[in-house]
Design a protein that fits this description.
By secondary structure, the chain is of the alpha/beta class. 37% of the residues lie in helices and 21% in strands.
Length: 493
């Protein structure tokens, strides 16, 4: 960094205030679309993580016993503030992670909806009475917040993923140490400020910055942390699971995907091709649930490929500040190289590039990759099985419903799937047979407040977004009371 360049400082957020990192270390934050430096990030050291966890533990007793109605009002106020500042937040998000600003605004508003949803859920946390186990007893259960939670957020949906994790944890009465990605930390700090303005007490939310290998690992293994919630790659999820095992920490892991889209011959091919373009190329394919494997019934395969390539070829790749842009930049030069590596290895293995397959050469700066369509892909190809996490889709034919189901289930992942058919019974059979956390029938969308979101197999543990997601932040306690005026004497002494 040039000595004459002064960048905005991004501090930590501990105990209700923005504070500098005591480690003396910093990282620069850049725009993935322009490669311009946009902020300097204070990197937390072990002492900073300890301070954040201590602040959360100190605040826990008060927040856990705060009346649910007050928690509801704070979360609703936060949702109002998010909506009021959606434009500003979207511009900041877009500038940092390179997504089209219109897409970012939709994600910010989705975050507001999540806060509203769990604001209402906070007052619905109830236990139950249990039929008497023996005469003279009353048995019941209560649900209590787990405690202090470490929440580790990815770079692909920074604000929205923070909302997904913070809202249920706060509604349940937990306190949090949040670690956003060091690549996209800016809106997390804005969210901390918004929650403080909404009335969240000091210490309930703390934000620390830095690489996962250091800051993330300290949080996962910290003796003061009771639960870890993580969204990111499957390999990292396994490492977190192993590190958390030493203290039997509670876990929620939303991990990788290689989601299929199954297209039967009875559909409107043009319409389904258009919807399928959105399902993979939204967020430049940097979505864990992106439908990156399209399986098409043999009789319409060639027609579907032609329609899909024609529509994907119309996507506007470029400046994320422009409303006309469909596909922004990838997050980094390293990630672009990784995506391109998958494509080049596929080509070497005999796969055909029907569209794209290279960096967008019209953009000298930024990390833009052309929407890429690969055909001639079989289950043996790496690109069929492994998550690319970029604007790359494979199209593979199938001959029967049974083969379609086998292909759909032919990876280690199980996050989401789409099924396209006019035969509702067949759509429901496929939905039952596909091993995934969610299935969309004749629609490309994946995640809404109220519907559980999460995966099977190597795609993770637990669910987010539904009312039952609160249970991931609650412990159930059994209480059995003697209602007589005598003490039980089982031994008859």
């Amino acid at each position: 960094m040039s000595a004459t360049l002064t960048l905005p400082q991004t501090p930590l957020w501990i105990d209700g205030a923005a504070v500098p990192a005591t480690s003396g270390q910093s990282l620069t934050v850049s725009s993935s679309a322009t490669e311009d430096l946009i902020a300097e990030l204070g990197v937390a050291g072990k002492d900073d993580v300890d301070r954040a966890v201590a602040a959360a533990r100190k605040a826990f007793g008060r927040w856990a016993t705060t009346p649910a109605g007050k928690r509801t009002r704070i979360l609703n106020k936060a949702a109002d503030l998010i909506r009021a500042r959606a434009g500003e937040l979207a511009e900041l998000e877009s500038r940092n992670n390179g997504k089209p600003v219109a897409h970012c605004k939709g994600e910010i508003l989705s975050g507001a909806e999540v806060f509203e949803f769990f604001a209402g859920a906070a007052t619905k946390i109830t236990g139950e009475t249990v039929p008497a186990i023996m005469p003279g007893t009353l048995s019941l259960t209560v649900k209590e917040p787990i405690g202090v939670c470490a929440q580790i957020i990815p770079w692909n949906y920074p604000f929205m993923m923070a909302s997904w994790k913070l809202a249920p944890a706060l509604a349940a009465g937990c306190c949090i140490v949040l670690k956003p990605s060091e690549l996209t930390p800016l809106t997390a700090m804005k969210l901390a400020e918004i929650l403080a303005e909404a009335g969240l007490p000091a210490g309930v939310l703390n934000v620390v910055h830095g690489p996962g290998e250091t800051v993330g690992n300290w949080l996962v293994t910290h003796p003061g942390v009771d639960k870890v919630a993580f969204t990111g790659g499957t390999e990292t999820g396994r490492a977190i699971m192993a590190a958390a095992a030493g203290r039997l920490k509670r876990l929620t892991l939303e991990l990788g995907g290689k989601s299929p889209s199954v297209v039967f011959a009875d559909v409107d091919v043009e319409a389904v091709a258009a919807a399928s373009v959105h399902a993979i190329f939204y967020s430049a394919g940097q979505s864990c649930e992106a439908r990156s494997r399209i399986l098409v019934e043999q009789s319409v395969h060639d027609r579907f490929v032609e329609a899909f390539v024609a529509k994907a070829g119309k996507l506007v790749v470029g400046d994320p500040t422009q409303e006309v842009t469909h596909v922004g930049s990838l997050i980094s030069a390293e990630h672009l190289a990784k995506v391109d590596g998958f494509v080049q290895r596929a080509v070497a293995a005999g796969v055909t590039v029907a569209l794209g397959g290279k960096r967008a050469e019209a953009h000298a700066k930024g990390h833009f990759y052309l929407p890429t369509v690969l055909t001639g892909v079989t289950p043996e190809h790496e690109v069929f099985k492994q998550e690319v996490f970029g604007p790359v889709v494979t199209i593979t034919p199938f001959a029967s419903e049974a083969e379609a189901l086998k292909l759909a289930n032919g990876t280690d992942y199980g996050l989401f799937a789409s099924v396209w058919t006019r035969d509702l019974a067949r759509g429901l059979r496929m939905a039952q047979g596909i091993s995934s956390g969610g299935v969309g029938i004749n629609q490309p969308f994946t995640a809404f407040s109220g519907l559980p979101f999460g995966g099977t197999k190597q795609s993770g543990l637990g669910r987010e977004l539904s009312v039952r997601s609160l249970d991931a932040y609650l412990e159930e306690k059994a209480i059995m009371a003697n209602t007589t005026d005598k003490v039980f004497n089982p031994f008859g002494l």
